[in-house]
Automatic annotation (TrEMBL):
It comes from Caligus rogercresseyi. This is Reverse transcriptase domain-containing protein. The lineage of its organism: Eukaryota, Metazoa, Ecdysozoa, Arthropoda, Crustacea. InterPro entries: DNA/RNA_pol_sf, Rev_trsase/Diguanyl_cyclase. Gene3D superfamilies: 3.30.70.270, HIV Type 1 Reverse Transcriptase, subunit A, domain 1. One of its GO terms (biological process) is DNA biosynthetic process. It comes from the Eukaryota.
Amino acid sequence: MQVRVDEACEKHLAVKVNKRPYQLTRMGFGLNCGPEIIKAIFNVMIGQDKKIESATDSYFDDIIVDTEKVNVEEVRRLLKKFDLECKEPVPLENERVLGLQLTKNC
């Protein structure tokens, strides 16, 4: 997930690479605070729609959608409303995720 930074804040996100200055237009996530920032953004964003909130969960920057409760496209539209983009959805049925085998109706 890439979070755009307000133009007024870009000057505070200046970095030098090979002695050349750059201003970041996206929020940079550090190893320590990145997961918590993403989780907070996700919770605020998803909390705007109670139906989507009850049908989703997240792990870092992955969103897990219960498609029996809400359509994936509804979640994508909500993300777009916040100017966020996501990868194409991947079905998880009978797949391994985070070292776990997911099986439907067991």
